Amino acid sequence: MAQHDPINLLSPLAGLAQLNERSREIFRQIVESYLATGEPVGSRNLSRLIAVPLSPASVRNVMADLEQLGLIYAPHTSAGRLPTELGLRFFVDALMQVGDLTAAERQSIEGQLASVGRAQSVEAVLDEALTRLSGLTRAASIVLTAKSNSRLKHIEFVRLEPERALVVLVGEDGQVENRVLALPPGVPTSALIEAGNFLNARIRGRTLAEARLELETALGHDRIELDQLTQKVIAAGIASWSGGDNEDRQLIVRGHANLLEDLHALDDLERVRRLFDDLETKRGVIDLLGRAESAEGVRIFIGSENKLFSLSGSSTIVAPYTDAAGRIVGVLGVIGPTRLNYARVIPTVDYAARILSRILGG
After folding, report:
1. Could you list the pLDDT tens digit for every one of the 362 residues in the chain?
2. DSSP SS3 for 138
3. Which residues contact 103 (CB under 8 A, 6 or more apart)?
4. For residue 40, how many other CB atoms are within 10 A of its CB?
5. Which end of the chain is more exposed for a tag (fewer CB within 10 A), N or C?
6. Burial 55-71 (b: 16+ CB within 10 A, else e)
7. In which element (H, E) is residue 199 found?
8. Short-list 46, 53, 7, CA closest to 29
9. Dist CA 88 CA 333 (whole Å)
10. Are strands 328-337 and 314-322 parallel, antiparallel or unpaired?
11. Which residues pair with 164 in a beta bridge?
12. What is the maximum alpha-carbon separation in the chain?
C-alpha cells in the first residue's frame, strides 16, 4: 500500500488553508456531522455523504492524512473520527460559511429589546438580551457589565468579628452582593446600625457610582450628626465600593438548563458539571470576558484556547457592546459545548450586541 504524506494535501504555499478540495470536503463532513450529532463518523458513512464518489478505503487514506495534520482524531480504537480543537478552529476560520439571521429573527431580537429598553432599566434590557440569546442559540448566555448599572435598594452591616463586618448590598433587580469590611477598633453594634440607617436614607434607587458621590457630599454636611466611629464605618464602606481588581464588574448567566440538553454519555454530563463549576468561579470568567472588551466584533474561544474552560471542553462566543458615547461598557455572548452551531451563533451574538449598543446609545 502506498504511503500517504499529508504534505501532498497542501499546495506549495503550505498552510492548512490550502487543503485540496477532496480533503476539504471530507473534513467538512466530519465537522458538520460532529456539530449535528456529537458522534464520530466513519469512512463508510463519509463515502455516502461526500459529493465526489470515493471508496471507503480512499476516504480512510484521506482521514489518516487529516489525523496526521492534527485536524481529526479517533476517540476509541476502530471508531470513527471527530475534529480536534485545532480542527474546529481551522473549520471556523477557513471553511465555515457564516449564516445570517432571518428577517423574522432580527425583528424578534430588535423588537423585544427595544420594547424593554423604552420602558425599563438597563438591567431589564440586559436580562431580555440574555433570554433571547439563550433561546435562539440553545446555549447558556452571559453578559459582563459594570456593577454601577445596578441600582441599590438596601444595605446592611452584619458583624462577623470585633474588627470585621459583612456588608450586604441588595439591588432593585434582586441581585445580592456580600463584601467583608475591616472595621476601626472599638466600633459598637449601635454604630453599625446607625451607619446602615444613614446609608439607606440616601442610596435607594442610585447606582454605586451615584451613591459614592451622594455619600461623600452628605458626610461633609452631616458629620455633626454622626459620631466619629459611625463616620469611619461609612467612610470604610464607601472605600470598599471604589472598585479595583474588577470589583466594579458583574457577570450574569442565563439558560444553564440548555447545557443539559442532548447529553450523549456520562462524559458529557461530567463536562457540563465542570462548566457549571467554572461559571461559579466568576472571577475567572470576568477576567476572560474582559479580554474580549478590547476587540472589535465577535471573539471566539474554542476549548483549551481558553484555559478557564479547558477541562469542560467548552466554547465561548462573545461580542462587546457600547454606550451612547461609543465606549465599550460590556460583553455579551454565549457559552456551550465545542459543538455549538457556530455558523448560527456567531451572527446571532453579533446582531444582539449591535442592537444592545443601539438601545443603550439612546
Report:
1. 333 434 344 443 344 556 888 899 999 999 999 998 888 999 999 988 887 788 889 999 999 999 999 999 998 876 789 999 999 999 998 888 888 888 988 888 888 777 776 556 677 788 888 888 988 888 889 888 865 556 788 888 888 888 888 888 888 766 677 778 888 888 888 888 988 888 888 888 887 767 777 777 777 776 656 777 888 888 877 776 654 444 567 788 888 888 877 666 556 677 777 777 777 666 667 777 777 776 678 999 888 777 666 656 788 899 998 877 787 888 999 988 888 899 999 999 999 999 988 888 76
2. coil
3. none
4. 19
5. N
6. eeeebbbbbebbbebeb
7. helix 189-203
8. 46
9. 19
10. antiparallel
11. 161, 182
12. 95
Q: Which has the closest alpha carbon to 317: 289, 296, 290, 294?
A: 289
Cell, residue 118 = 423604552
DSSP H or E segment with residue 290: helix 282-292
Q: What is the C-alpha to C-alpha distance for residues 129 and 133, in angstroms, rounded to an integer?
A: 6
Instruction: Classify 220 as helix, strand or coil.
Output: helix
Q: How does DSSP classify residue 41? A: B
